[in-house]
Amino acid sequence: MVPYPAWLNAGDNAWQLTAATLVGLMSIPALAVLYGGLVQKKWAMNTMMMVFCTFCLTLITWVLWAFKMGFGTPLVHTFLGDPRAILGHNAEQGQAGIPLLDGLMPNFRFGESSLAYFQFVFAAITPILFIGSVIGRISFKVWLVFVPLWITFAYAVNAFLLWGGGYWAGKGALDYSGGYVIHLAAGVSGFTAAAVVGPRLKRDRERAIPNNLLFVAVGAGILWLGWNGFNGGDPYFAGADAAAAVINTNLATAVAMMTWIFMDMAFSPEKKPTFLGGVNGMICGLVGITPAAGYVNGLGAIGIGLIDSAIVWAAWYYLPRYVWPFNKVDDALGVVYTHGIAGLFGGLMVGLFADPKMIEYIGLGKTSSVSGAGLFYGHPKQLLIQFLAALTIIVWDAAVTFVILMVITYVFRMKLRLPEAALEIGDIAVHGEEAYPADDLASVSAASVADEVQPLAGRAAKAATTAKDDA
After folding, report:
1. Mean pLDDT taken over the chain
2. Is the pLDDT of residue 440 over 90?
3. In angstroms, how far is the first alpha carbon of the chain from the final one?
4. Cα–Cα distance, 239 to 361 (Å, whole number)
5. Confidence of residue 44 (pLDDT cuts 50, 70, 90)
6. Which pLDDT tens digit goes with each residue over 229-260?
7. For the chain, what is the radius of gyration of the CA atoms?
């Protein structure tokens, strides 16, 4: 007997599963504790519940129909794949493949389960990211309905267009690991949802103080290192390009974080470096390099980290004050900036910095190697392609998000916002639990336990005495 089919490579399969697990950790626990620490303490449990439930709902949706919509055979020309379940033995143990990319890249050397799980964690993190736009007012029940619909009609379309061999993949658009499919989509959809659902309570907006910066640090650290799987796993092979993507990811992130901190020190109203500012810069670097990680060299990675962070820093301070609709929409955690704008400009900079000598797949014989080339390397058309692909994601995701919310409101007859009384209270009103119980409540609980235990102890002692007398 042998453990491996002839087509399976143990190293590639092990790396793909490891990379997928790293990406999964970016959602649970990283974003659960990052977002849970950023929000007011009365919303900490609601935030973490939404993150975990989104992870669950996406996986169920993914295996029942959405995976094949993004990575299967065409259903609607080059726009959408045919929905199919992946629950049978061949779907779990057969060789992985993306039909429209057959012959355009090396054959996969791992199973369909590895591909499906790797792509699932990418799908899951996208709506999890834009929880940060609508937290503190959206109905938990509405969110449970929204997630499967959004994965089906927004994410699966994005994935097919750019990764599954669909229209923009055929036109040569480059999105190495999700600057458009994930981050631009999250920023646009989150901003649209925030506009439709409405703002948080005025008092909450004015006093939006993080409840636990140590949780934020833990979540940010796991998010950063988890990104090694995010970008390092996307060549689908444990090759040289995967390693280059990892070092480029960390380099761009380091530059972006320090850029934001230096700009805070030089230009912010307080002229002080802050940890939250540094985290914003870190996320800008991670997001900005994502569409480019394996297509650019180290200088390109530095350029993306510097430029992307500087652009988002300026947008963060300027747009909410002076520019419509940014000054009207309450995007609670600024997802439209650190993911939407960062993902947009990261993708556009692929059209500038993509280096044709950065080889993703090595060509043999008459087959050309697979790489990308941007404006600075003699291919100005790439910038236009990147722009048009981004415009497609922006328009489609905004429209789909709006329509889904309208369907939930007028067809399902569900109120998007929590009642005002629940908004005042937070977690206790929605879930009946809170992250930081008050000391008096803890004392009452302890006293109640003591009241219950003491009679039991008395009865046990009396029984022991009776047994001794009988003996």
Report:
1. 93
2. no
3. 66
4. 9
5. very high
6. 999 999 999 999 999 999 999 999 999 999 99
7. 25
Q: Give the domain range for residue 149.
A: 10-431
Same domain, 371 and 455: no
Closest CA to 192 of 440, 426, 406: 406
Residue 25: Cβ within 10 Å count:
17
Rounded Cα distance between 124 and 34, Å, is 16
Residue 2 placed within a domain? no
Helices (H), 130-239: 131-134, 140-150, 156-162, 167-170, 185-197, 202-206, 213-232
- Which pair of structure tokens corresponds to residue 227? 């990104």
Dist CA 257 CA 308 (whole Å): 10
Q: Using the predicted structure, report yes or no on whether residue 439 has a pLDDT greater than 80.
A: no
> Tokens in use for 255?
């530059």
Residue 1 covered by a domain: no
Among 216, 183, 240, CA closest to 36: 216
Contact partners, residue 343, CB within 8 Å, separation at least 6: 179, 180, 182, 183, 184, 186, 187, 287, 288, 290, 291
Kindly state the DSSP code that residue 270 receives in the 8-state scheme.
S
413 and 443 both lie in a single domain:
no
Q: Could you give phi then psi for residue 11, rounded to 5 degrees?
A: -65, -45
* Residues 123, 59 contacting (CB under 8 angstroms): no
d(CA 15, CA 234): 11
Taking the C-alpha atoms of residue 118 and residue 84, their distance in angstroms, rounded to an integer, is 17
Question: CA dist 471 to 102, 236, 314, 398, Å?
Answer: 84, 75, 85, 81
Q: Which of 218, 227, 195 lies closest to 121, judged by CA?
A: 227
| Domain CATH number, residue 72 | 1.10.3430.10
Q: Tell me, what's the pLDDT at 360?
A: 96
Sorted by sequence, the CB contacts under 8 Å of residue 372 that are 6+ apart come out as 174, 295, 350, 354, 355, 356, 358, 382
Which residues does 352 contact at the CB level (< 8 Å), separation at least 6?
374, 375, 376, 383
Counting the structural domains of the chain, the total is 2
* 361 and 453 share one domain: no
**Does residue 96 or residue 462 have the better pLDDT?**
96
The residue-averaged pLDDT of 76-94 equals 94
Total residue count of the chain as it appears in this document: 471
Those residues whose C-beta lies under 8 Å from the C-beta of residue 464, and which sit 6 or more positions away, are: none
Structure tokens at 135: 């937290």
Q: How many CA atoms lie within 13 A of 153 on its CB side?
A: 18
CB 421 within 8 A of CB 137: no
Q: Give 271-275 contacts, CB < 8 A, sequence gap 24+.
A: 275/213, 275/216, 275/217
